[in-house]
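TICKET: design request
STATUS: open
ATTACHED STRUCTURE:
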């Protein structure tokens, strides 16, 4: 299978996202060319990465002095105390700015290690090896790094780009189905907000993506990264256009908060429900037509994703979500700031649809 490459370029930096199957061996060549002065490499692995993949990476980098850490990836550990532990290990081993950190794991490892790299001695080289579908299509793209605080998720962090992102499809073979659905939700969102042709392609190819077909995955990951980069390039610091990537997430975050962030419903599952609710809101506010909802529901039905909707089709249950919608970070006053859908491939802009709680209640009562 051909290796795919996407190049990110802005006024300050450039880096590539490389996508392929069994491509971890290229790390040694890439490190040599991108970080020619590196002598020491700190490798931070998600504990659940298959041993075989870990061995390939270690073998490929055997010419360097390696420091290997395994990390239990969960939202509780994505914390400032883990940052402190890692910083101390790097300081103890006397790494310097020309050395390198490689984070190998899902979005938690990527966010945490990217943040550590951005503040260690004011910035050390960083390479990201995302190992979940969500990390490959979303979390590793765009340079947002950070950790959680007791006051909320991702509240401490930085904007900082890696030297390279390597998406190896072989990691996805050990990923549970629920995690594949998480990544798929973001792929589908990217198509809905930006690319009708890609959405039509997903109509026929979702089943192959969820069944881990390398060729289809490679295409979907490349498309998805390109769409995310399109928004990131226009708005690196998330002041306006990048907020469109939040489509479906206003409802999704409320669903996750109402469920106390329990494992019963994952972020991706909440996004899949959130996108349907955002489209229902777009219909009652006359921003979009009914047929768009039917089109999307067909994708869910065909791929057995509609099991998610059963708890969110009753209007009384939806009203109970409203208090949780008020905490969305896009809100800049008492009203809730929604990104709505005009048609597949086109959303409204941030601040175009700010809706009061009272009005939202009346809209939700009219959801079909
Ligand atoms: N920086 C960004 O722009 C951005 C965007 C979206 C999400 N995020 C963050 O990403 C995180 C979610 O990422 P995620 O969904 O990858 O979750 P995650 O990192 O928690 O990984 C999900 C689970 O899969 C396991 N895992 C990872 N790779 C595996 C593999 N190859 N085989 C088997 N198991 C594997 C992990 O140990 C974990 O249990 C959240 O913390 C979120 O805030 C960041």
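STATUS: resolved
RESOLUTION: sequence designed for all positions
ATTACHED SEQUENCE:
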């Amino acid at each position: 299978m051909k290796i795919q490459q996407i190049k990110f370029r802005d006024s300050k930096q450039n880096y590539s996202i490389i996508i392929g199957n069994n491509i971890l061996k290229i790390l040694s060549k890439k490190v040599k060319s991108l970080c020619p002065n590196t002598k020491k490499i700190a490798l931070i692995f998600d504990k659940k990465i298959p041993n075989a993949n870990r061995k390939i990476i270690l073998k490929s980098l055997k010419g360097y002095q390696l420091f290997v850490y395994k990390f239990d990836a969960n939202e509780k550990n994505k914390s400032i105390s883990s940052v402190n532990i890692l910083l101390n290990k790097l300081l103890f081993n006397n790494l310097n700015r020309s050395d390198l950190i490689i984070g190998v794991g899902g979005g938690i490892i990527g966010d945490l290690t990217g943040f550590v790299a951005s503040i260690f001695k004011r910035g050390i080289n960083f390479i990201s090896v995302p190992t979940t579908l969500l990390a490959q299509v979303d979390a590793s793209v765009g340079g947002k790094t950070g950790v959680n605080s007791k006051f909320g998720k991702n509240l401490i962090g930085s904007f900082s780009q890696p030297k390279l992102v390597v998406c190896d499809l072989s990691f996805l073979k050990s990923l549970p189905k629920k995690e594949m659905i998480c990544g798929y939700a973001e792929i589908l969102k990217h198509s809905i907000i930006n690319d009708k042709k890609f959405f039509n392609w997903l109509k026929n190819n979702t089943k192959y993506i969820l069944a881990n077909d390398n060729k289809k995955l490679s295409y979907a990951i490349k498309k998805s990264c390109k769409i995310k980069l399109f928004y990131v390039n226009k708005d690196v610091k998330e002041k306006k256009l990048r907020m469109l990537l939040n489509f479906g997430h206003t409802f999704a975050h409320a669903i996750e908060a109402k469920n106390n962030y329990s494992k019963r419903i994952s972020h991706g599952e909440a996004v899949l429900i959130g996108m349907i609710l955002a489209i229902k809101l777009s219909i009652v506010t006359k921003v979009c037509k009914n047929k768009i909802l039917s089109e999307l529901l067909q994708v869910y039905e065909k791929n057995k994703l509609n099991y998610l909707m059963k708890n969110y089709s009753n209007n009384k249950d939806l009203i109970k979500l409203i208090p949780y919608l008020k905490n969305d970070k896009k809100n800049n006053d008492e009203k809730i700031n929604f990104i709505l859908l005009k048609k597949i491939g086109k959303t409204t802009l941030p601040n175009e649809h700010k809706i009061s709680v009272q009005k939202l209640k009346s809209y939700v009562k009219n959801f079909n």
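CLOSING REMARK: The pocket of nicotinamide-adenine-dinucleotide is lined by residues 46, 48-49, 73, 75, 78, 105-109, 111, 131-132, 134-135, 138-139, 142, 144, 153-154, 171, 174-175, 179, 182 (CB under 6 Å). The radius of gyration is 21 Å.
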